[in-house]
Amino acid sequence: MSLTNEDLNKIRNVVRAENELIEIRFEKLEDKINVLKVENKIEHQELKRLIIELKKMENEDTSAFYTDLNKLEKRVTKLEVKVA
């Protein structure tokens, strides 16, 4: 069974949409980290670790990326609550 051009286009559209969602989540995390950095309300070392992890995630495979992105989002949220 081979895929038709229509099937391939649907798959491409799904992958493109997933990539856009990942990019949005990634940008939101960067924005949140930058806000915390500007407010200077968190420990410098923790901020550096978050930035390093975020940059490292750019080069990971997709399955690991989702897992790490979820963990990182939780850590940033905890920091936001901590400094609020």
Your description of this structure?
With 84 residues, the chain is mostly helical. The chain has one domain. The protein has three helices and no strands. The longest helix is centred in the first third of the chain and has 35 residues, at 5-39. The N and C termini lie far apart (56 Å). The mean pLDDT is 77.
Short description:
Helix content is 85%, strand content 0%.
Features:
3 helices; mainly alpha; elongated; 84 residues
Round the mean pLDDT to the nearest integer and report it: 77
What overall geometry do the principal axes of the alpha carbons give?
Answer: elongated
Give the helix level as a range of percent. over 70%
Q: Regions with pLDDT < 50 over 5+ consecutive residues?
A: none
Radius of gyration: 17 Å
Domains, number: 1
The total count of strands amounts to 0
Main β sheet profile: none
Q: Give the DSSP E fraction (strand runs of 2 or more residues).
A: under 5%
Distance between the termini: 56 Å
Counted by DSSP, the helix tally is 3
Secondary-structure class: mainly alpha
N-to-C series of helices and strands: HHH
List the helices and strands and how they pair.
Layout: H1 5-39, H2 44-57, H3 62-83
Helix pairs in contact: 1-2, 1-3, 2-3
